[in-house]
Amino acid sequence: SIMEYEEHEKRAWSVDFSRTEPSMLVSGSDDCK
């Protein structure tokens, strides 16, 4: 399934997927969101 997410307003430095919940991801950005 495809999910929508709120995008960053500045560059994203990292993205990682959960090993226990593969459909979940996290990202880190300069905008601190």
Approximate strand percentage: 25-35%
Secondary-structure-based class equals mainly beta
Low-pLDDT sequence parts: none
Task: Note the main sheet.
Answer: 2 strands, antiparallel
Tally of separate helices:
0
What is the CA–CA distance across the termini? 24 Å
Q: What sort of overall outline do the alpha carbons produce when their principal axes are compared?
A: flat
GO molecular function: ubiquitin protein ligase activity
InterPro entries: COP1 (IPR042755), WD40/YVTN_repeat-like_dom_sf (IPR015943)
What does it look like?
- The chain has strands at 12-17, 25-29.
- It has 33 residues and is an all-beta fold.
- Strand 1 (12-17) and strand 2 form a beta hairpin.
- The N and C termini lie far apart (24 Å).
- The mean pLDDT is 79.
- GO terms for molecular function: ubiquitin protein ligase activity.
Set out the fold topology:
Elements: E1 12-17, E2 25-29
Short description:
By secondary structure, this protein is mainly beta. The protein has strands spanning 12-17, 25-29.
Quick tags:
single chain; 33 residues; two-stranded antiparallel sheet; mainly beta; flat
